[in-house]
Amino acid sequence: MSTVVSSYPAASTRAVDKVIDRVDQHCARFVELSPFATLATVDADGFPDVSPRGGGPGFVRVLDEHTLALPDRQGNNRVDSLRNLAGNPRVALMFFVPGIEETLRVYGRARLVSPAEVDADLTEFGKQPLSVTVIDVERAYFHCAKAVMRSRLWDPGAQVHRSVFPPMGQVWREHTKAATPAQDDTEMRAELALEL
Q1: Burial 36-62 (b: 16+ CB within 10 A, else e)
Q2: Mean pLDDT of 135-158
Q3: How many domains does the chain have?
Q4: How far, in Å, CA of 15 to CA of 25, rounded?
Q5: Are residues 125 and 181 in the same domain?
Q6: Which domain holds residue 37?
Q7: What pLDDT, on the 0 to 100 scale, is given for residue 152?
Q8: What is the pLDDT of residues 21-67, one digit of tens each?
Q9: Do 177 and 112 reside in the same domain of the chain?
């Protein structure tokens, strides 16, 4: 362990004891309320990736206290997370609920299955998912509110007006050094809305 890490005081008993090996009733309720989560995966070479996932509250389904089902919706088709899972099944999820400052962290092993293999209706926005990541839960715990409190994430007064950042069409054009004209943001958002 580095000297920097060893200079921290020991974790409190509560911080250590909060880790459980299942999705209890409180974890399940949090997942049911959550419209947004991040999915962390690692490829076979150990390179990490994190991906945003979202849907209506409860878009991730609790199948039982040891199993979650994460539907994979149409995206940009890079399928980075899915490729990673093929080489390394370890995953981590962090769930957010707007208005609640605590977050929920879940760790486990994942496998990819077809929607027909899951005993739950995962239809959302009138569509079945392309695939489902089934997670066998190994650890779950709530993370304290400090980071969300510090960031004022749910405070409407802390929201940034969209005008302070360039339109994404311009950002992507300049970011990729594309020779084509920047796509209009209104058109881009309309196309994204059709793909929901």
Answers
A1: bbbbbbbbeeeeeeebebebeeebbbb
A2: 97
A3: 2
A4: 19
A5: no
A6: 11-151
A7: 97
A8: 999 999 999 999 999 999 999 998 999 999 999 999 999 999 999 99
A9: no
